[in-house]
Amino acid sequence: MSTQHVQRMSRLLAKTLREDPADAETLSHRLLVRAGYVRRSSAGVWTWLPLGKRVLENVSRIVREEMDAIGAQEVLLPALLPREPYEVSGRWSEYGDLLFRLKDRKGADYLLGPTHEEIFTLLVKDQCTSYKDLPVMLYQIQTKYRDEARPRSGVLRGREFQMKDSYSFDVSDEGLAHSYALHRAAYQRIFERLGLDHRIVSAVSGAMGGSASEEFLAPARAGEDTFADCPSCDYAANTEAVTFALTPVEAEHGPLEEIPTPDTPTIETLAAHLGVPASATLKNLLVKVDGEIVAVGVPGDREVDLGKLGEHLAPAVVELVTAEDFADRPDLVRGYVGPQGLEKVRYLADPRVAPGTSWVTGANKPDTHARNVVCGRDFEVDRYLDVVVVEPGDPCPACGSGLALDRAIEIGHIFQLGRKYADAFGLDVLGREGKPVRVTMGSYGIGVSRVVAALAEQTADERGLCWPASAAPADVHVVAAGKAVPLALAESAATALAEAGHRVLLDDRPGLSPGVKLTDAELIGVPWILVAGRRSADGVVELQHRATGTREELPLAEALTRVV
Ligand code: ATP
Ligand code: MG
């Protein structure tokens, strides 16, 4: 093994801070700043100091090795991009305020790349002409720009950040599925090597189709994503992708009965008035889908997730109805809508409103509700859609156990794009039969700088950062806890460790107490801390394992063999 470098803390460009930065909301933000890994430059824009740059490089190296291993080729495209391709794809305007736009001296429009589907499509169109040139997988590790609305979590959500983005180009759907599977497996290896606890969740709801897109999530309190996680089986999904199974019920029900219900403007007052739980009531939300009024039925105790509804019905536009929409619709009695007798309105319902279930709902008359309104007997559902907000304890779609909802950080996203960009740019290659074939594409991202913060979030403890060896800025942190003899022993330990191939941080700073140095070592979070202190004259050092906190006093020679 080759000799490694000893980085002296006395020369290191970075001061540890005792106080948390005032604007820091997340643990990783606080610790990465306090331990001297990053410095804020402007909102959402960060400088990587030597220790931080090392961690970023370690993550990049692992990403690079695993991308190379699946046969992806590394390139580097510009970050400064012309407007035209993004105009062709529609994203120049679709991106809205998220896009950094700028002009050159001639007044031509440019943007700073938020992601590069357009440019890679053009590159492949330029370079590949025959099916023999495909499949091809290309990647880059590059600075990306997004003018995020709330860049508040340190490097977790930057406006300038590092992303590994890759793109696959295939002639067939099977080819795309294979490229996707290769990426999925590579991502799993990357996060395993980094020791990052992660889940793969389906990112697209059922209606949009199966496995077209999956997210890699790192569970962490600071996460901005919520996902459903089953404690009993391996099911995990983005909350938007959770679907409740439709199970018809066999039961006898009494006849439909109308009941006067004055002064019951809310589900709560109605349920109290009738002495039934809110879950026995059926609430019917009216929405406009491409201008047509439709009703959406969900149990009274559940909220409709309008985002989820919009995603199910995309590309149709979903809007809430307004008072004006009721004006010429005497069939719609505001506040008393029931699916029975809704003749001119399409009825969408949550799968909990299954055939055979019985409900209390509006009677389509003012101040009146109806009970024993049975699905399949008194009304029909035109289409089932799971559109309620998922709640803890909802049944797992795979095994039925109660789901937990957890916070997580999105660290990666893999996507079977299909022919969207190939269509936009006319990307064809000459097929086996001599005819042009439209290329199909995948796109795959890892937030390299975000991964650094996600690792910090998952591994830090009350004493500071605590890196897994694969990402740590050094293998061992040697502390000279004293002048003269301890310093000499620390120097020789550092040299010996570096010669044995370990990356070493040596705290040789004069004039600092052993306590301060140890506190800093724990804050910086290198896997091993070797302290030359009181017993240095006997050649005895203390070896601390940062993650477990175990400490042992050992002769230096023995301590050197323990560091792995
Ligand atoms: P988010 O929902 O967190 O905004 P996204 O879905 O917009 O992310 P993608 O377009 O899927 O992000 O980008 C690929 C990866 O890049 C993400 O999975 C994430 O790890 C990373 N990433 C995205 N935005 C940022 C950001 N502002 N700062 C740091 N990393 C980011
Ligand atoms: Mg994403």
TrEMBL record:
GO molecular function, one term: ligase activity
Location (main, coarse): cytoplasm
Swiss-Prot/TrEMBL catalytic activity: tRNA(Pro) + L-proline + ATP = L-prolyl-tRNA(Pro) + AMP + diphosphate
E.C. no: 6.1.1.15
UniProt cross-references to HAMAP family, sorted A to Z: Pro_tRNA_synth_type1
Oligomeric form and interacting partners: Homodimer.
Protein's UniProt name: Proline--tRNA ligase
Gene: proS
